């Protein structure tokens, strides 16, 4: 499940302003990938290009055997149905209650009956923990709930690819942590390909399977989380450690005198911090796309920074992982399916009920 997105040599400009050029990457099917980059580097433009809302100047976006920029309007319309999108501003209709907001794509794009629409809408609202809030207007709920309503709407057509633009902007750390947990659980349940744009370094370090960084009109790097978190490449390292030391300055790029001053004053980026263990789905859920902790480092002869993959209880997840997978597979087997999706009565599903965050 989930579909791979293969981008080759993509370039986009507006007039004479080049936004990014020659971007190539493969967003792996069914995995969670995060895209980072300083403000204005064209992350939103990238997402909009992926769904065909903006046309790149050059390059390819392969979804299976279809090259998005070269599709006819009707084929593009068809292909767009594979995508669920949550834009930066959430874009809920202010005068519609949450139920109608979430139902909107179903009423627009399908001929389903109201009873079927109701079943789907309530199912998606339950997935994002908004059951019970169907009759509220967007103006009556918190920012975190609005994001989750936008997410439910992005899910109603059962997307193979979910694109999310800054779900955490304007959210406090607790709500961001809740929302990230929702992403992990959703990914475990629906297995779609997730691409999430964020500015939150903690999210980038702990949530995804893969990380990409846009910087200065290029894709600086894209790869497994461990690859970027163990990278000594100055831009990647500075960005992922939110450090002042490195080539990025207030106006994006430091000039040579600033870098020299940094070097003279003996400022040293220091040792890389440990790679944190990846955040897990709620109990009973397995994500098919999750990479085994330490696997990328081991396969590439990279020694991770000391203390990597150790959680707050002191457990080392490189050692813990095989046991964890075995126990989860066994539990899922007993429940009759692998991976399991908890039933409606499962208490673990109640963790994000609407009341928890009003
Ligand atoms: N439709 C458009 N026409 C012209 N210029 C545009 C258009 N959309 C975006 N831009 C420009 O493209 C650049 C990248 O914008 P974009 O919104 O993708 O940045 P971003 O990385 O998402 O930033 P932020 O992190 O602040 O959301 C900006 O300079 C913006 O002004
Ligand atoms: Mg943006």
TrEMBL record:
Residues 247-288, 332-358 are annotated as: Disordered. It holds the Pfam family ABC_tran. Residues 343-358 have a biased composition (Basic and acidic residues). Keywords: ATP-binding, Nucleotide-binding, Transport. Residues 5-241 form the ABC transporter domain. The keyword GTP-binding does not apply. It comes from the Bacteria. GO terms for molecular function: ATP binding; ATP hydrolysis activity. SMART domains: AAA. This is ABC transporter ATP-binding protein.
């Amino acid at each position: 499940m989930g579909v791979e997105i293969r981008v080759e040599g993509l370039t986009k400009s507006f007039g004479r302003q080049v936004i990014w050029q020659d971007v190539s990457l493969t967003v792996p099917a069914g995995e969670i990938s995060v895209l980072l980059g300083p403000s204005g580097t064209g992350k939103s433009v990238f997402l909009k290009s992926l769904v065909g809302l903006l046309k790149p100047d050059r390059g390819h976006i392969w979804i299976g055997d279809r090259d998005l920029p070269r599709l006819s309007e009707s084929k593009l319309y068809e292909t767009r149905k594979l995508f669920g999108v949550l834009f930066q501003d959430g874009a809920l209709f202010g005068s519609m209650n949450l139920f109608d907001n979430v139902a909107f794509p179903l009423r627009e794009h399908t001929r389903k009956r109201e009873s079927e629409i109701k079943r789907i809408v309530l199912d998606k609202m339950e997935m994002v923990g908004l059951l019970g809030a169907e009759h509220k207007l967007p103006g009556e709920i918190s920012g975190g709930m609005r994001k989750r309503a936008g997410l439910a709407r992005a899910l109603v057509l059962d997307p193979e690819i979910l694109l999310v633009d800054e779900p955490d902007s304007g959210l406090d750390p607790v709500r961001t942590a809740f929302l990230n947990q929702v992403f992990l659980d959703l990914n475990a349940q629906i297995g779609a390909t997730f691409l999430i744009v964020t500015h939150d370094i903690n999210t980038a370090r702990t949530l995804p399977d893969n990380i990409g960084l846009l910087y200065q009109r290029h894709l600086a790097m894209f790869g497994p989380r461990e690859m970027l978190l163990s990278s000594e490449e100055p831009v990647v390292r500075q960005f992922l450690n939110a450090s002042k030391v490195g080539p990025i300055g207030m106006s994006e790029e430091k000039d040579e005198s600033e870098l020299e001053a940094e070097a003279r004053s003996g400022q040293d980026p220091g040792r890389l911090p440990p790679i944190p263990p990846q955040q897990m789905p709620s109990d009973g859920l397995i994500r098919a796309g999750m990479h085994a902790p330490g696997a990328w480092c081991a396969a590439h002869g990279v020694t991770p920074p000391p203390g990597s993959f150790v959680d707050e209880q002191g457990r080392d997840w490189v050692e813990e992982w095989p046991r964890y997978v075995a126990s989860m597979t066994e539990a899922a087997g007993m429940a009759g399916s692998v991976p399991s999706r908890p039933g409606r009565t499962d208490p673990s599903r109640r963790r994000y009920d609407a009341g928890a965050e009003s």
